[in-house]
Fold this protein.
Amino acid sequence: MIDQTKLPGTLEFVTYSDFNQIAEAIRTLVVRGAPAIGVSGAFGLALAALQSNAKEKDELINYLENAKKILFETRPTAVNLSWGLDKIMQVAKNAENVDEIRKSVVEAAKQMAEDDIKTNMSMGKNGSELFNDNDTIMTHCNAGALATVGYGTALGVIRAIKDSGKNIKVIATETRPVQQGSRLTAFELKHDGIDVSLIPDTAVGYTMANDLVNGVIVGADRILRTGHVFNKIGTYQVATMAKQHNIPFYVAAPLSTFDMKSNPEDVIIEQRDASEVTGIGDKKTAPDGINVINPAFDMTPPELISGIITENGIVKPPFQKSIKELFTPN
Ligand code: MRU
């Protein structure tokens, strides 16, 4: 995988052969973004199956259950992680013997990776129709190829708009404290020759008040059956500003990001280390010992969301009804 902590300075690849290394890569944001974390978890379990020297199915399943627990406990908010781990665990349990488990979990993880790209391209196509030629679109955090296996969710829609021949400009927020916007989104869009401008998070209101933004699109880490969306910290503020200025606010996310069981109060918001806020790299930007509150995600209520773009179409308010229909087989 790409070591995203090194971007945009260097494009460096890291190779892992031990599921514990994958767990550490997820914890330390070498890999991040809900779909990318989900697929990395799946590959972590596949590696665990190859690492174990179990001779019997039960023994291997126990080993995998332990590896699953370690991978699951890395980050709590993105539902894709448990989705990916549960899927691979089920494949293992359905297999006859140790050899078949090893073969089938590797195949399943690879298939999950391929499906992710196809899913993002369908989502991109679905969402591209929501935006007009010469629109300027704001995005927050990084919901691009780096946050998935490829193409991206929110940035997938932006790529699809460009591929459809429309001219567009993008405004990317810096997304402090980890700067996924400036380090990753700006990097991806510049790499693809898409017109992108970077703003500090504090300039969201200014750009909207000065009619510089026609629409907003972001990704998601967990979407509830009620339409509540959990995404990178600051998303709620961007959505609130967009509502204030009557600017459409869209979320792009695959069905694997929907959590049809939890209620808002059930969702754990990851709290990350103070050092992310008190300094940038080796530069100290706050006094020693200052108390820091550093939630990595927040919740945007359904009333602030214009639509949710999925691979199976776009759902609109009232979300309780439209999301239920999305998961109701035809
Ligand atoms: O802390 P991160 O970088 O993993 O947070 C990522 C986000 O919030 C993304 O917007 C979300 O995971 C969607 S990625 C397609």
Observations:
- Residues 54 and 60 are 5 Å apart (CA to CA).
- The pocket of MRU is lined by residues 32-35, 78, 141, 143, 147-148, 153, 180, 219-221, 231-232, 296 (CB under 6 Å).
